[in-house]
Amino acid sequence: MWQLLLTLTCWLSVAVGTVAADDQQRVSFARDVMPMSTKLGCNTTACHNVLTGKGGLKLSPLGSDYSADYRALARSNAGRLVSPIDPDSSLLLKRLSGPKSTVKLEHDSEAYRTFRNWMANGAKGPNAADARVVDLKTSTSRVVLLKGDSSEIQVTARWSDGVIRDVTRWCRFEIEDDAIAEVSGTGKITAKQHAEWGVDDFQGIAAAFNDHADRSSQQKLVQPSVFGLRLGTDGQDTREQLAVWLIGEGRMMLARNIVHRYWNHFFGQSLTMWVDDLTPSSGERHAGLLDYLTKELVEHEFDVKHIIRLMCGSRVYQLGNSPVREPVEQWFASRFTPIRMTDSGLLDVMRIAAGSRKGQEKGMRAARPKMNMEGDDECSRNQYRSWGAPVYRLFLTNSEELTEMLRDPDGIASRLVKGDASTDEISERMFFRVLHRKPTDKEWQQIRAHAAKTERAAYVEDVFWALLNTKEFLFIH
Fold first, then answer.
1. Where are the domains of the chain?
2. Has residue 178 got a pLDDT over 80?
């Protein structure tokens, strides 16, 4: 199953119209004639775009300049293209319906009648009173299809005069990659094959940061690139070029990755199979949620504090963690799912709980176990996803770093041992320090039994270590 990204070239202010072509009073240049020209492809580079201008007729890209296009159609060539007196004899309709035309309009077609009625009504140009499109919506922004499946897109427009209509037939649809799908002029999409995000893209981006050779037998050098765009070809710093791409053409992709990682951080589960997989085939759980968060981040100039407030202030984040029903709760967020703290977060809170700064100068890497990550990049990532992080956390909770924290002469454990507090008082302080509560009756029985047969320093270290290894401490819940 994969998701198809569709490009709609029906622009908000220009290329949409809906008026009935046989109603001459309602045919307007801006609202009907130019959208029809765009639909027919008249203003594309292959036809009469301002850059090419076949036959000397030059139209603005996708009808973006009403005034210039009106002058080109109604005033150029001494006005010979249009004929308000006899529209059927006009050079414009003869060219559009003639044998040499690329569109070959039939006389009873909607497009032919639109152009004819516009001329019959005086071939009036655009004016400030013309209604403009203020909102354009598609029936779906993301289509999930299996190979061979099809789906239809419906487009609705709202004008400044309050009119709301289905404008699907007026839109021009394009597919970014016609090798994986095809789309008809009416918005019907058919999946042709599965889409995957290649390892080449991953390695190309990695190569932008350093020389990166692949692990194939040929040992060919992987060239720095970002989704097919070569970097460093003109001698520029590849990292600078990548940064420029990220804040330009790739800004939506960057924003999408940022909000997805924040979601994973606060909710403990990604909205796709893996947090670092936002490819079309990743299978998004809540359609539209990532799009909404991405739009929020971009509209607020990448202010991540706004996204944090949005997520943490949501009802989903404030839900309790009592189990409901499986597997519904995993997909629809019916409760807050307890999550383990991150690697760096766990190390920090252990130091805080132990009241020690031991190992802080070494940083995170010193506390990490050595793991064999040989193999291709994708396998290595999957390997760490599957067991790398859990192994590290298990290592940390049983590491020398933790022992050093508990035995730090300036730490909480050492001060409790040296103090004159009773064993029960020490136990309460440790519970409040780590779990922010008193021991339960069952826990009192267990720790008092252990205290009775254990030397004071060893008892404090044992209980402290046990508390730091409880699920209650290790999980955010």
1. 1-193, 199-247, 251-337, 341-477
2. no
